[in-house]
């Protein structure tokens, strides 16, 4: 299925102040969008757990188990949930069925049994810092609550916008079906953050805190999908940029070290020598003397 075929139909919208500890995963009979607007939550998808906080968004397919839990019994969070079909084909023929626990789930009741309704676009899609999509989901809920003759169609249009925005945020320009592990999505988000912030004072702990990951989990997924530790990935980004600046600019070694995120000129010089076997001066392009031609 590609983007041109998307024509969503809103089935239901709800919001919860989640303050109970569910023990069993839930399963829906249609596609769903979730957004945490306040607080933090544990999300379990299969054998993987990650943390969601305000601005985190989850998209799931029909028949896909998920489990939300509080961080602890004293800390609730606010969750918005949108249930929808990916097309309008079953708008007038199917009756919406509320989600159920995994042990009570009956696959034959899924509204749209075509593969793209359960596996399309690489579901599940988990995005952090997705404030724009969170606002769209809240708008969809608002239209549902208005319950006038325009609500369903307006909300259904917003669902398409939210879905395509999610695909763009994930970096998928084709819109074709492709299933990606949650750990790969999380690793990609962390790497994009590192690539945009490596010049700043970031570390494995600060990155893990930004995405509400455990530092061990962050290190594990970066190593799995990119073959290096987060520390190593940041170091390579800094050194690559430093070499470019040494070759292309007249900035001092100290200035380049600071620009590239090193704590001091000494730390920069030591890392450069250790990793490349060369000093900063070795990367400087020799200046060419310009001589005036004889008349």
Features:
295 residues, Jelly Rolls, alpha+beta, five-stranded antiparallel sheet, single chain
Account of the protein in words:
This protein is of the alpha+beta class. The chain folds into two domains: 3-180, Regulatory protein AraC (Jelly Rolls, Sandwich), CATH 2.60.120; 186-283, Homeodomain-like (Arc Repressor Mutant, subunit A), CATH 1.10.10.60. It has helices at 115-119, 131-146, 151-170, 182-197, 204-210, 215-226, 230-248, 253-259, 265-276; strands at residues 9-18, 26-27, 31-38, 40-45, 48-53, 57-60, 67-70, 77-85, 100-101, 125-127. It has a five-stranded antiparallel beta sheet. A hairpin with a 2-residue loop joins β4 (40-45) and β5. α2 (131-146) runs antiparallel to α3. The chain is elongated and about 75 Å long. It starts with 8 loop residues before the first strand and ends in a 19-residue tail after the last helix.
Distance between the termini: 72 Å
Low-confidence stretches: 173-178, 288-295
Level-1 CATH class name of the largest domain:
Mainly Beta
Output the CATH homologous superfamily of the largest domain. Regulatory protein AraC
What is the 3D form? Answer: elongated
CATH architecture call of the largest domain? Sandwich
Number of helices: 9
Q: Which whole number gives the mean pLDDT?
A: 85
Q: How many structurally independent domains? A: 2
Q: What class do helices, strands and sheet pairing give?
A: alpha+beta
């Amino acid at each position: 299925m590609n983007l041109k075929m998307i024509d969503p139909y809103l089935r239901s919208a709800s919001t919860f102040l989640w303050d109970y500890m569910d023990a069993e995963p839930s399963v829906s009979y249609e596609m769903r969008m979730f957004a945490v607007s306040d607080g933090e939550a544990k999300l379990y998808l299969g054998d993987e757990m990650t943390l969601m906080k305000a601005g985190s968004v989850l998209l799931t397919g029909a028949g896909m188990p998920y489990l939300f839990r509080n961080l602890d019994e004293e800390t609730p969070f606010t969750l918005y949930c949108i249930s929808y079909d990916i097309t309008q084909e079953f708008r007038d023929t199917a009756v919406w069925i509320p989600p159920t626990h995994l042990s009570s789930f009956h696959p034959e009741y899924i509204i749209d049994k075509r593969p793209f309704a359960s596996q399309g676009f690489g579901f599940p899609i988990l995005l952090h810092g997705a404030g724009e999509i969170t606002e769209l989901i809240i708008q969809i809920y608002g239209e549902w609550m208005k319950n006038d003759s325009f609500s369903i169609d307006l909300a259904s249009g917003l669902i398409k916008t939210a879905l395509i925005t999610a695909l763009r945020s994930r970096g998928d320009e084709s819109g074709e079906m492709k299933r990606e592990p949650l750990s790969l999505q999380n690793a990609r988000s962390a790497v994009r953050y590192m690539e945009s912030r490596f010049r700043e004072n970031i570390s494995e702990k600060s990155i893990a805190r930004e995405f509400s990951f455990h530092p061990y989990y962050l290190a594990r997924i970066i190593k799995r999908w990119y073959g290096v530790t987060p520390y190593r990935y940041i170091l390579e980004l800094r050194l690559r940029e430093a070499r470019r600046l040494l070759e292309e600019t007249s900035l001092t070694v100290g200035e380049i070290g600071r620009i590239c995120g090193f704590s001091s000129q000494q730390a920069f010089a030591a890392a450069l020598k250790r990793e490349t076997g060369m000093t900063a001066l070795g990367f400087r392009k020799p200046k060419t003397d310009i001589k005036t031609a004889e008349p």
